[in-house]
Amino acid sequence: MSLLVVGSVAFDAVETPHGKIDRMLGGAATYFAVAASYFAPVKLVGVVGDDFTARDAAVFRGRPIDTEGLERASGKTFFWSGRYSADMNDRTTLVTDLNVFGEFNPKLPDRYRTAPFLFLANIHPSLQLNVLRQMARKPKLVALDTMNYWIERAPAELEMVLHEIDILVINDAEARQLSGEHNLLRAAARIQQMGPKILVVKRGEHGAMLMQKDSIFSVPGMTLAKVHDPTGAGDSFAGGFMGWLAKAGKVNDRTLRTAMVYGSVMGSFAVERFGLERLRRLKRPEITARARQFRRLTQFTL
Ligand code: AMP
Predict the structure, then answer these.
(1) Atom of ligand 1 at shortest range from CA of 235
(2) What pLDDT, in 10s, does the model give residues 26-84?
(3) Is residue 35 classed exposed, middle or buried when 0-12, 13-18 and 19+ CB atoms within 10 A define those classes?
(4) pTM for the full model?
(5) I need a surface site. Which of 79, 85, 120, 290 has the fewest CB within 10 A?
(6) Which helix (H) or strand (E) holds 160?
(7) Measured from the CA of 80, which atom of ligand 1 is nearest?
């Protein structure tokens, strides 16, 4: 089943202990779309400026990614820059220039409006709400990602959109910030009161947790020989997670658990190279092999 995503398409500048890149293609929706496209057809909503070339757009070509909803506006593409700590567990945002996203008012192509799976990737909550409002019918599943930038700048809009979603995909620090609770169980319970009944908490190299009212499922992080650039790991996780659910076509405990593993698989590939380099060159057997590695990592008898 098809999967609609709205979020940032960006140029990023990143500095990690392995190097510094002044400008590379990025953005939450870009990582998400590329990761999800290995599982299900994706429809993309976003905006780029006139500095976004055909070479940049090539990342979407040759994949089941519909870019009719990727608008071109005059001005500059969203720009973000960040620096990672020596152990890469922390990052500092140096610059966020919304540029063309500042004025963006998306108009969904008709064929986008019936998508059964919707992912509101990281962007201004009012844009997330705007897209949700344009759906012709209630999607089977709506998930949302956000970050400290929006939790701090647009809390009222974020609160509104949270009421209308099923799953919140968020990292542990942001779950604590959003809920005002340090303990993750308490943070999850508080967030569940805000709307989403299911929480996916991303914990960087420590893996991810699926938190429902009465159950928790946990996937460890994959220990990797090379981690070059954590940028986009969260969005790639979300792409694998939602991509798998859209492929399965149904949402239940079983599909959610497998989706957590495919999310972890895609996140683990994303960090192996800078930007989208690893993700865009993946082969399907590599995805399957890594999912099996996750199974071996967690199998035991009692
Ligand atoms: P992640 O590492 O998965 O959290 O996502 C990194 C991506 O998010 C980068 O490619 C950035 O372009 C994008 N990004 C960073 N800050 C924002 C923001 N405030 N709104 C939307 N996208 C952002």
Answers:
(1) 3
(2) 999 999 999 999 999 999 999 999 999 999 999 999 999 999 999 999 999 999 999 99
(3) buried
(4) 0.97
(5) 85
(6) helix 155-162
(7) 12
